[in-house]
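Trying the structure run again after the queue cleared.
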Amino acid sequence: YHFIGKDIVYFHSLFWPAMLEGAGYRQPNSVYAHGYVTVNGAKMSKSKGTFIKARTYLDHLDPEYLRYYYAAKLSSRIDDLDLNLEDFTQRVNSDLVGKLVNLASRTAGFITKRFDGKLAKVADNSLAESFIAKQEQIAEFYETREYGKAMREIMALADIANGYVVAAAPWQLVKQEDKQEEAHQVCSNALNLFRILVTYLKPVLPRLAADVEAFMQQPLTWDNLAADMSGHEIAPFKALMQRIELDKVAAMVDASKDNLQAIETAPKAETELDLDPISDEISFDDFAKIDLRIAKIIKAEHV
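Done. Tokens:
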């Protein structure tokens, strides 16, 4: 499978396959093309600091943020992909921190402090079953490269899970002596939903998935989505993801500008042409003395 930019479709879908065929190598099964990456709706600009190197990004922000943002915008079509820095900040904070990680952060503490770190046997698994019923649809979106549709489907489930937790309000239930078992079940159900959601997101957020595997003390795989979590022990919850602060995004843009300025002011290394300059140009009269001819190849033999 070849993943290429749309500006070289002609070469990779015509000349390169022809060369492979002629050389006796198999051709690619498919050639997938992507559009251009723009920043804030325009071509990357060095002067504006939106020509962002991967290293500069990594110095300031988590790579998982960008993986999710791009996945949320990618489709099987050849569309340009815009990195709008304000939208990027809002979407990551809303989806990954506010919807996804928040599911665990608002319920895991009760399991550890009040219920010996063990999940309850949930009496009604209908919500988890409805989440698991989406696995074929989400898998198909991944296989057909409709990553944006997959992210929307997963986040729609995250909205449902958060709505369930808000309606049940376990932080109120734990204050009532006769509601302890109900609180235990609500928090356990919420963490199971969280486990399913992160499993769906594992191809996009591998590092978060690894952290959640350590927290849930169970591997997150497609095959164990329906695992029975009754009595399963979890590790104490640790912060999984931080909100993006606008000052970090601004610092990244400023660093991109500084990086450019440093490159422009750095002394340029001598080139081969500087070390060995070409001779003076000749006049047209000198050029006219040259006998230029076109030759026809009559015979060619193996060397």
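The chain is about 55% helix and 5% strand. Worth checking whether this holds up in the mutant runs.
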